[in-house]
Amino acid sequence: MSDIAHLAAAIFRKGAGRERVLVAIAGPPAAGKSTLAEALVPLLPEGSAFVLPMDAFHLDNRILEARGLMARKGAPETFDFGGLRATLQRIRTRESDVVIPLFDRAEDFSRAGASVVGSEVKFVLAEGNYLLSDEEPWSGLAPMFDFAVFLDVSEGHAPGQARDRVFSNDLPNARRVLTRRRPADMELKV
After folding, report:
1. Residue 93 belongs to domain spanning
2. What is the count of structural domains for the chain?
3. Which pTM value belongs to this model?
């Protein structure tokens, strides 16, 4: 059985007797979190899985510029943690039709109200760098997740990334993710 099939089976088993399962998929930048989450959707019962990207909670570039954080975009302090936490709480309590933002990579900003987590969704696959962080306030997310996956990568792993961005921003963020994390239920080496 492949790693992804094994993971899908573990998530499916976690759903036994539950109305909703929140899964954290964490790892450093460019580890393949989004790709893994999207690949899991068709392996779970049709219409039962939804991907919630943490990138949707990026602060707008104007806010980052005003705070002097633009060069560090992607670091924990460049996200709307409170918005993410509130969204996860709404999803956890099975509030019907939770409207969420989505990150538009081509435009480099989050679009408000871009998607909906419907009440029929059983498996919510949240993916993002800091979902398993042991740093406050991120560590406060731990009780919201029923299952946690960590993508462990070698430090040199950065496909498709511009060299300057990797060394100025992504590499420090990756080191932070790798060294400041809580244990996961399952780790995948990529």
Report:
1. 3-189
2. 1
3. 0.89
On the 0-12 / 13-18 / 19+ scale of CB atoms within 10 A, 148 is buried
CA dihedral angle for residue 58, residue 62, residue 65, residue 70, rounded to 10 degrees: 30
Distance CA 24, CA 128 (A): 8
Q: Quick one: angle between helices 33-40 and 3-14, nearest 10?
A: 60
The CATH number assigned to the domain holding 45 equals 3.40.50.300
**pLDDT tens per residue, the chain (190 residues)?**
689 999 999 999 999 999 999 999 999 998 999 999 999 999 999 999 999 999 999 999 999 999 999 999 999 999 999 999 999 999 999 998 999 999 998 998 899 999 999 999 999 999 999 999 999 999 999 999 999 999 988 655 544 443 444 445 777 888 888 888 888 998 888 8
CA separation for the pair 42, 118 (Å, rounded): 17
What separation in angstroms does the CA of 24 have from each of 27, 82, 104, 183? 10, 17, 21, 11
